[in-house]
Amino acid sequence: xxxxxxxxxxxxxxxxxxxxxxxxxxxxxxxxxxxxxxxxxxxxxxxxxxxxxxxxxxxxxxxxxxxxxxxxxxxxxxxxxxxxxxxxxxxxxxxxxxxxxxxxxxxxxxxxxxxxxxxxxxxxxxxxxxxxxxxxxxxxxxxxxxxxxxxxxxxxxxxxxxxxxxxxxxxxxxxxxxxxxxxxxxxxxxxxxxxxxxxxxxxxxxxxxxxxxxxxxxxxxxxxxxxxxxxxxxxxxxxxxxxxxxxxxxxxxxxxxxxxxxx
Length: 263
Hints:
The chain is of the alpha/beta class. It has one domain (5-261): TIM Barrel, CATH 3.20.20.140. It has nine helices and eight strands. Strands 1-2-3-4-5-6-7-8 form an eight-stranded parallel sheet. Strand 2 (33-38), helix 2 (43-55) and strand 3 (60-64) form a beta-alpha-beta unit. The radius of gyration is 17 Å and the shape is globular.
């Protein structure tokens, strides 16, 4: 049966999609992934995400923000551009923003500064937050917690953490975005054990395409590139872990995305 799914995080501006984007989008729609939120993760990337979303009205939306990898580039000019982008109706969240101490492509101080500035953007715009956290849980929660009272909604995008981290985020009021990480028998099996802790009204699903191709796909695709059409596999594995019918989880996650992004 066909679903009406929302992929809350796909990087379709990635050059891996430059050759066949129309096919990718059509195959997603055919698979029941009817709407896609394009992730903005840099100044130019956020502009590109909005431009791309504008080509598929009613199918695509964009976020506008600066990923912690790019935090060193965050300037007053960046801030002005983001504020401008956030005025557009197709831009539905601030981010992808947060902290990433796994690779530290930008120094920790620069990451924290860019994160704090984008929290203020979310407060000022009343738009929800699309969050990234990797190996930085303590600083992330320390910076985010005081702002949560003034922020409309926030999602921990691509959650891969522990039960304790999950409980902390849920106590803070965050929504949780689950990717194909949960389909990885090597790294993601713990997620299958804890996904049932997420309240049904705060669970969302995403591909993070072209990254995180679900390892559970059969037959295995020839390409390692993940695509929005494979959101159905994330849905299948999440529903299995929850012991719920696929249709129930499809309906719930779609309603959550509609409410969260006001789409």
